[in-house]
Write a structure and sequence with these properties.
Elements: E1 7-9, H1 14-24, E2 28-31, H2 37-42, E3 50-53, E4 63-66, E5 69-73, H3 78-83, H4 85-90, H5 92-98, H6 104-109, H7 112-118, H8 124-132, E6 135-140, E7 143-148, H9 149-152, E8 153-155, E9 158-159, E10 166-173, E11 179-186, E12 196-204, E13 210-218, E14 225-226, H10 228-234, H11 241-254, H12 265-291
Parallel strand pairs: 1-3, 2-3
Antiparallel strand pairs: 4-5, 5-10, 6-7, 6-10, 8-9, 11-12, 12-13, 13-14
Helix pairs in contact: 5-8, 10-11, 11-12
């Protein structure tokens, strides 16, 4: 299979990219890691007239800590995030989830910004960004704005990024104190897209009550799904199998999965609840280990 004809550009600066986007608009596609776009081109599911390769812009690849959050360049490869000691220490949920993305060959080429901009409803990183309350920075000609994860994902393969804007940076808060985390998913084979997955954090108060919780799911909607009602139901309670089961029931009631060749809607809904319970239990266990002085 071969892609349709297109004009190819490989700019070396962000300014050149923005000029090209301004010139071509919806007729252009950005090439980051290529792990999603190249197959789509080869299957003729999209036919852009212009392809803009971001691979020669080194300033888009970085990982650094700033005031209260990690900043990751949009062209930072999954493999670099996976190996980063800083990510593992300051935001272990991201480190855990990134290992579930495809296979090593894919993680060596795929980029964190490309995955989020593609907004695949079964991908891991959109759910992680939503669970963490993260954001992305996008750049236009003469203007820059930050988009919260809750506003970024707008449906199937659709985001709030404009056709003349470039995603340049991803921001995720560092893990708060007394907080456990978990990312669990179920796929038919390792490396496949998940039938369902759950990203969560769980924060305990000094008295052991749940002081905060964040839940987001993948594979059970047209985009990542935030389990706000379920997470809120846990705040102020003591963690227990009963409270986790009640939260899981709220998740099942909130998601609206569709049936496909891989699983029925009913099965995905069942998995959403089951994996929510598992993720919460795992996050709780990690808080307990951290309080005991051991690493999670």
């Amino acid at each position: 299979m071969k892609p349709p004809r297109f004009a190819y550009h490989d700019p070396t600066t962000i300014e050149e990219v923005l000029d090209l986007l301004h010139l071509h608009g919806d007729e252009a596609k950005l090439l980051a890691g290529g792990q999603s776009l190249i197959p789509v081109l080869n299957m003729r599911l999209t036919s852009p007239k212009v392809l803009i390769d971001l691979g020669r812009i080194p300033m888009l690849a970085f990982i650094r800590e700033e005031a209260g959050f990690l900043a990751l360049g949009a062209m930072t490869r999954h493999a670099l995030v996976e190996r980063s000691a800083l990510v593992a220490q300051r935001q272990p949920l991201l480190a855990e989830a990134i290992r579930q993305v495809g296979h090593p060959q894919i993680r060596n080429r795929g980029t964190i910004g490309g995955s989020l901009a593609h907004a695949d409803p079964a991908a891991e990183l959109p759910a992680v960004l939503l669970a963490l309350g993260g954001s992305v920075v996008v750049q236009g000609r003469g203007a820059q704005r930050e988009i919260a994860a809750a506003d970024l994902f707008q449906g199937l393969f659709t985001t709030a990024i404009g056709p003349t804007e470039l995603l340049t940076e991803v921001r995720v808060p560092v893990l708060p104190e007394r907080t456990g985390w978990a990312f669990v998913e179920l796929a038919r084979r390792h490396g496949d897209f998940a039938l369902a997955g759950v990203a969560c954090t769980l924060t305990l108060a000094p008295d052991g009550q749940i002081a905060g919780c964040q839940l987001a799911l993948t594979g059970v909607g047209a985009g990542p799904v935030q389990g706000s009602a379920a997470a809120s139901s846990l705040v102020g309670k003591m963690p227990s199998a009963t409270s986790f089961a009640e939260a899981a029931a709220l998740v099942q009631a909130a998601v609206e999965p569709e049936s496909d060749i891989h699983a029925t809607a009913a099965y995905r809904r069942h998995l959403a609840g089951l994996l929510t319970e598992r993720a919460l239990a795992q996050a709780l266990a990690r808080v307990s280990r951290l309080e005991g002085g051991a690493a999670g």
